[in-house]
Amino acid sequence: MTTITAPTGTRHRTVSVSAPAGRQTAPRQTTPRRTTLRLTRRGRRLVALLVASPAILALAFGIIAGGSAIASLDDGAPSGSFEMVTVMGGDTLWSLAEDVAPSADPRDVVDAIARLNALEGVTITPGQRLAIPGEYTGEH
After folding, report:
1. What is the mean pLDDT of residues 99-104?
2. What is the structure's pLDDT at 74?
3. In this structure, is residue 105 part of a structural domain?
4. 3-state DSSP helix/strand/coil percent for the chain, to nearest 5?
5. How far, in Å, CA of 63 to CA of 78, rounded?
6. E strand or H helix at 66, and its extent?
7. Is 116 inside a domain boundary?
8. Domain count, the chain
9. Strands, DSSP E only, in 61-123?
C-alpha cells in the first residue's frame, strides 16, 4: 500500500493507493552499467611483461643450457670423421693446420678446427685436446 499526500487548496489531503488483489508490483529493474577496463601505464607494462615472459624464459634457457652441447663429441660427428691431437708447447692453430694438411689452405683448416671444437678464438693451450676434421687427416 502506498500513501500519497497531495495539496488541495490550503489543506493537504492524504490518499492511499493499493495494488489490485493478486497483483504485486515488481521492483524496478535497472540495467547493468557497462564498464570499460582502463589500464594505467604501469598496468600496460605489467601486461606486456606477462605476455613476453614465455619468450624471455625460453631465450634465457637457451643461452644458459644451449652452449654446453656445442662441442660435445657424444652425439656430434661420427667417430671416424675426426682425429684427436694434443696441443704441445709453442703450437698454434696455424701450425697445427700446416702440419695436418700441408696441401690445403691453412685458413680453411684453422676455420674447420675452430668450428669442430667450438673455439671462441684462436688461442689454444698446451695439453688441450683438439679434434681435427677427417678430411684433413686422410681418414675419410
Report:
1. 89
2. 47
3. yes
4. 40, 15, 45
5. 26
6. helix 41-66
7. yes
8. 2
9. 82-86
Q: Which residues pair with 132 in a beta bridge?
A: 83
Q: What is the 8-class DSSP label of residue 77?
A: S
For the stretch 107-130, what's the b/e string if a residue is b when 16 or more beta carbons lie within 10 angstroms of its beta carbon?
A: eebbebbbebbebeeeebeeeeeb
What residues contact residue 140 under an 8 Å CB cut-off, 6+ apart? 134
| DSSP structure class, residue 69 | G
Residue 85's closest CA among 36, 139, 10?
Answer: 139
111, pLDDT greater than 70? yes
At 5-35, the pLDDT tens digits run: 555 565 656 656 565 666 666 667 777 788 8
Q: Which three cell numbers stand for residue 11?
A: 489543506
Instruction: Say how far apart CA 109 and CA 33 lie, in whole Å.
Output: 75
Q: What range defines the domain where residue 97 resides?
A: 79-137
CATH of the domain at 89: 3.10.350.10
**Do both 52 and 83 map to the same domain?**
no
Residue 129 sits in the same domain as residue 102: yes
